[in-house]
Amino acid sequence: MEMQIQANWQGKRHFIAEGASGHSVSIDAKADVGGEDKGVRPMELLLMGLAGCTGIDVTMILEKMRQPLDGFRMEVRGIRREEHPQAFTEIHIYYYIDGQVDEQKAWRAIRLSEETYCSASASLKADIVPHLILNGVEVAQTGAHGGQA
Amino acid sequence: MEMQIQANWQGKRHFIAEGASGHSVSIDAKADVGGEDKGVRPMELLLMGLAGCTGIDVTMILEKMRQPLDGFRMEVRGIRREEHPQAFTEIHIYYYIDGQVDEQKAWRAIRLSEETYCSASASLKADIVPHLILNGVEVAQTGAHGGQA
User: Fold this and answer.
1) Whether residue A132 is found in the same domain as residue A62
2) What is the pLDDT along chain A (149 residues), one digit of tens a residue?
């Protein structure tokens, strides 16, 4: 199984990337490394890919569980090494879920994504720590695979 | 050191992600998992982040080495597990560099990115294999850290 993208240099630090899906993304650096801020930062793309991957899983699983969503957003915080290479060492995903959703089922959907389905999560070296905020209230993880702080 | 992004659900499998840089990216799945192809695939974003990261490094290093580029593009091929989670196991980066660029310097720039500077590369579990195509001809890696096929 293979996936391919292309990235074409536009001068300075600016690239336009495109995948087989046909959607393109503009990528650029900040001024301190010679960029002109014409696009998203490369390391932001890793966090966005992770968010998209687990977000698609969680919405799909909750739909199958017949748990209707009124709203759903994620915040993803990546903690990076101070030294080069400044890789992510720990990534916190905050799932903000609104609606008549059972908290056990919400956690089960998150765990199924993290442990079984999410290819982006399984591609990253960092420890990934999920958090659930259900209708505005943070809900601790329960159940067999719990225990992540 | 921390970096943060948000991703807001737009219904079905569609998300709009935005980072601190302020640039947003539309993310969606294919129809087979309930998506409508309104944006890039999450796993494409990981490869794009990797391409942007090493592309920014390589253009910056070659500029410092006074090696003028006429053109530069990258193809990134990610090989994935067949089973869930379908993580990347091996990623090939093809650097297509055109211009009056010394081949040793081009390889040195690529190696400096891979081994020292590229945070995206250091964040991914997959084995990353670089390839250099200089003015249309593939050039094998030479020097101390060579040996990757």
Assistant:
1) yes
2) 999 999 999 999 999 999 998 999 999 999 988 999 999 999 999 999 999 999 999 999 999 999 999 999 999 999 999 999 999 999 999 999 999 999 999 999 999 999 999 999 999 999 999 999 999 999 999 765 544 43
* Residue A78 included in any domain: yes
Interface confidence: ipTM more than 0.85 = yes
For residue B36, the enclosing domain spans 1-40
Other CB atoms within 10 A of residue A136 CB:
8
Burial class (CB in 10 A: 0-12, 13-18, 19+), A137: exposed
Q: What is the pTM of this model?
A: 0.95
Is residue B122 helix, strand or coil? helix
Chain B partners of A7 at a C-beta cutoff of 8 Å?
48, 51-52, 55, 73-74, 76
Q: Which residue of B has its CA nearest to A46?
A: B46
B55 and B78 both lie in a single domain: yes
Residue A119: inside a domain = yes
